[in-house]
Design a protein that fits this description.
- This protein is α/β, with parallel strands linked by helices and 273 residues long.
- It contains eight helices and 13 strands.
- A hairpin with a 2-residue loop joins strand 10 and strand 11.
- The radius of gyration is 19 Å and the shape is globular.
Length: 273
């Protein structure tokens, strides 16, 4: 891997490394919060002949840059498995109990992590393979572990405020779809679904809107993410909602437009913090 000339890792303490993990791919960015010209994005899909953990370890060993001393190192876990607990009910010592009561997962091989979303007074819990978490903790300098949903919820919370109706954000990712709804300034629900064919996915979205008593005339649908192949779904949604708006995540100023389209929403959000 050859980094661009404007990224000199002898100055890595000025840069932020963000790693993004999905079930099928590994992505990372290097950027400098004080210099928009310093930016690099790289992604790869996993080798089917290797295990998930082996794929990640191979990337680390093949490219000797992740062990550098960065200003900040973030690991984003992308998964539909998470749950939300309001502050008034949350006890960090009981995080595993909260999580495994609400989410089907392998308790023996997982560690439960939590992200606090301060403006909404909620805690988002998610899990990661224990061995993988240990590997990152050993291999990276003080990594911060986050769920992709944490970044989306935090961003969407600040996007539209003080509206007298519900607003529902739909974010299309390469293999997932996130649906996050606010009722005025309160988080109503957040869910992440595996992508399916257009008909099944449209049906799931319809059912979701019914479950939150979505008002077709007053409430808003705000759609973002990878929209390159979502025309049929968007057209269908326009038939059930009077208020459909396509929105763009605030972009890092120097990212080329072609490359910008390939970067997931939750990663774009981290670049603009």
């Amino acid at each position: 891997m050859f980094l661009p000339e404007n990224i000199d890792l002898t100055n890595s303490e000025n840069f932020i490394l963000t790693i993004r993990l999905t079930s099928e791919s590994f992505e990372f960015t290097i950027h400098c919060p004080t210099d928009n010209n310093v930016f690099y994005y790289w992604d790869t899909t996993f080798n089917d002949k290797l295990s998930y953990s082996e794929n990640i370890q191979k990337i680390f060993f093949d490219f000797n840059l992740f062990t550098q001393k960065f200003k900040r190192t973030i690991v984003i876990n992308v998964s539909e498995k998470y749950t939300i607990v309001p502050d008034e009910y949350y006890d960090k010592k009981k995080a595993e109990q909260f999580y495994f009561f609400n989410v089907m997962s392998d308790a023996e091989s997982s560690i439960v992590l939590d992200n606090k979303i301060e403006p909404l007074k909620i805690n988002l819990l998610f899990d990661m393979d224990d061995d993988l978490h240990s590997f990152f903790s050993r291999s990276l300098l003080n990594p911060i572990f986050e769920s992709h949903a944490t970044n989306l919820i935090s961003y969407f919370e600040s996007y539209k405020k003080d509206l007298p109706y519900k607003y529902c954000f739909i974010n299309f990712d390469k293999s997932l779809i996130d649906i996050i709804t606010f009722n005025k300034d309160k988080l109503l629900s957040a869910t992440t679904l595996q992508k399916r064919n257009d008909l099944d996915l449209t049906y799931l979205i319809y059912n979701y809107l019914l479950s939150i008593s979505f008002d077709q005339l007053a409430d808003q649908l705000l759609i973002t993410g990878d929209l390159s192949s979502q025309n049929e779904i968007i057209d269908s949604l326009k038939k059930v909602s009077k208020n459909v708006e396509l929105i763009e995540i605030d972009s890092y100023p120097t990212i080329p437009k072609d490359e910008l389209k390939t970067i997931p929403s939750d990663l774009l959000i981290k670049l603009c913090e």
